[in-house]
From TrEMBL:
This is Tyrosine-protein phosphatase non-receptor type 9. It comes from Elysia chlorotica. Coiled coil: none annotated. Keywords: Acetylation, Cytoplasm, Hydrolase, Protein phosphatase. One of its GO terms (cellular component) is cytoplasm.
Amino acid sequence: TSHEATREREDLQVIEPNDKFIQKELETGKFTLLPGRDRTCAAVALFTARLHYPPQTTHQVVLKSLVYQLDAALESIDTQRHGLVFVYDMTESKYANFDYDLSIKILSLLKGAYPARLKKVLIVTAPLWFKAPFKILRLFVKEKLRDRVYTVNVGELISFIPKESLPIQLGGSQVPCHQVWLQMCYQCATNQQPNLSSYFAACPTGPDGRCRSVSRSGSTDMDNHISDFDSESSKDTVNEKHTHEYKEKEKEDVDDMDETFKDKTGLKDKDSVTAISRKRKTSDSRTGLPDQSTVNEPPVDDMPRKKRPLSSGSNILDDSIHMPDCNGVNIQELLNKVNSLKRKGLFQEYGSIKMEAPSGTFNTSKLKANLPKNRYTDVLCYDHSRVTIPVTEEDLSTDYINANFVDGYMQKNAYISTQGPLPKTFVDFWRMVWHNKTRVIVMTTRTIERSRMKCGQYWPNEADSDEQFQEFIVYNNSIIEGKDFTESHLMLHNTNTGESRELVHLQFTSWPDYGVPPAAPFLDFLFKVRAVQESATKEVGSEWTGHPLGPPIVVHCSAGIGRTGTFITVDICLRRLEDVGTVDVRETVRKIRSQRAFSIQMPDQYVFCHQAVLEHAMKQGLISSMEQISLEEPDSDSD
């Protein structure tokens, strides 16, 4: 059978409870069965992610410890009948605690290869880096599991599991009893036939003496429910998806449980709940893992990807091209690289990036009707990532603006990179801002530099003034002028709908006419942008149903590639550094250029990205201020 094949492939035929490696793994308490049950009498398995350190164990040992405990849990007739709820607690976990390949094996084990009914998967306080990857979450949501996966916070757990069944660390009242559970497991493994009813909470019984499930009164809308996630028929936009009401079915009919069990787990008759008995002591009871093709090559043919939304925000489950991987370097290694390559070596590295051919076409930018809308004839925008704007009755021929969506760190469409608006595109610019629900505009140039027009005055630049751009009226409510940047609080009013939105316009004014700015004021500006975006997103509240970091930030300079690309590169690198402790400036730039062509325009901007990351690291104490950045070559006669 597939169970036997899996046992053989993963070398799980023999699970020796006295093995010192298995004992050490069991003692970590990362995986356990709780004494309490959920509202449907299902057993509750808890995996605590922050207790898992991949370098300290192996997949085989972890899987054996899981199978060892699941075998014991399924000695309970109630667990056989009512199934299992898997709680994956990611509270305070880091990326270093996460093992992608092991996760695939565990999830595949739980979702059907193991002879127990998986009722739900509850992912508790999932960090952003875990919510984002579609490739991980799509393993949960195939077919039967689609309605049974939830991402919840600790407070929402009691909607699924009674407080008295939850451990204290998850807001419950259950005191830890992992050692008692391990004693039960040992007795099961050594054929001592323990009384599991003394450990697990009893299920309520009906008048006939049979166990019955507890039904909840009413139902709950769960916005975090990943339902119909990759169905071709699901809605295309985040707003449509999140306004759909999802209902959870909690009541189960025990009389037809056998048929339901077989149907939902895909088990054949011989594997049905009626066949699961004390025979679990035999070797074919310890199963667990999918075949190798499932581990290495998740099937994709039966899982069509969702169509990309037009431009209305970002889906938390969409893939960003900027994800944590094993290719980055830590901050000390980055410092060593910079000091080794010097400015000349970094210039050469940038030169190799600049030589790469564009990764897309520019057909829409080149259309005759759109050419006048481009500030520079040689700065066009890719077709595949361009931002589209709603057409108007006056101009049905185009939805074009010279702007591209650019992903952030684990955030799809985090930014809109665009050129400095021309007078003829002011209205297009404000339509784009409105259509994408943008609340923060970042400007990294002055309108005039070196006596050249770099950007049109597309917003009222005096406090308590306003300007109208067709259907939009822009009010400037206040201006705060700082040493390095100017902060304007705007109100954007749509006369067609009668709606108004508050925006913040942040203009960095310390970029010199030539070269790059000092890193310190630039970093202050970047973190000001982050703080304003966070505040604006909180104020919007439930109106924004996309990524937790908020709607796209519009970033522009003059061409929308040089300073704009520099700002985005540093922001992405610092977010990754904060998350996993590594950076990869070169690949970050290459990926940004795959969405906004020619981003990072000059070699000194590329060098500056490295300097800014290192400057931030010094501020944070990640490297000593005594470790100097040395970009210049030593004098040739200094030897």
